[in-house]
Amino acid sequence: MSPPLPAATAVAVNATVVLVVGAAVRWRARTSYEGPAGDAETAAELRALRHRGLLAGGALTAVVTNRFGLARTAQATATDALAGSTGAATVGAVAGVLVAVAVYALPVVALALAVRLATVPYRRAVRGFRLRYRDAAAWELERDGVGFLAVLLAAGAIALVPGGLPRVLAAVGIGLVATALTPFALVVALRTRWPTDAERAAVADVLPPGVRLRVVDDRTRLGSAVAAGFVPGGEYVFCTESLFAVLDDEELRAVVAHEVGHHEREHVLLRYSLVAVAAGVALGVASVAPGIALATLLIGIAPAAVVLAWIVRRTEAQADAYAAEAVSGTALASALETLAEHRFVVEATGPSRLLSYHPPLTERITRLRGRPSG
To answer: Mean pLDDT throughout 39-43?
Structure first.
């Protein structure tokens, strides 16, 4: 293994990666926006551009951090600094892990912020977002900050568990708890509110007992609608205010029924389980062969992401079928067309379809229009 290089150099290189990737994404986003493509095509390109920037930049920051030995140096320094404290072995080990994770995560957080903010002016223009750049920056900082703290807390808890299988099981358990608490975190992190009486009445017949509805401010849009939580009493459907403005009653009911379908078919738990398996494998490799853990992660992340996306697309098709039975396929197809017209949903194009969590929009609409009413 190469000896670690100066920490200041590693920080400078990572900062350069963030600046260069952010600038490249901004330049490419402006080129797409000023090109001849329509708003829908441009919105899809901006979405794919964000994904490419995050993947490429994230891999680069991880490689730089590993090559310069920044995490190893920081971990050793933190461990040694606590060598004389009470319970030194445990405290030092946990502190070392926290510092190492922070060193890897901070450049990725900075990169994610730079990439997403680089596309905000153009996404706002082509998708009709009602937000100021300042609001977008504040929201992204809040979201990334909460995520960063959550990762540190999880890493600290996992570090307290002996290595090997116990640590893998601990990681899976912590992930399960985090997934169960996700809707409550979204209630706090997003600008959400309870639906008005009129909004609740519009979808009451497709909301089963125990599934709660929250309405999301468009300025913190998390898609158009999303299902979160799997614990009884903690299952939520989040819908943006714009859905109530642009969809008619039948279309709105169909969209909410689609999200309810994810709960009824246990898709939230299934998706977590898939991620947990991947995380368990990564932790297992890190415990058995830490020297090749990063290389294994970088090699395996792409095929794992493709497989995960394929399975999630299958669950989306199942949720479409549920909505078609509960309301009608025509209503959901019409809702998708309306949302696409307003660019609230964007269809992936080219190779990015492999990583898309939704089937092709035209394919969904065609299939839905061929289904009988519920």
So the answer is: 76
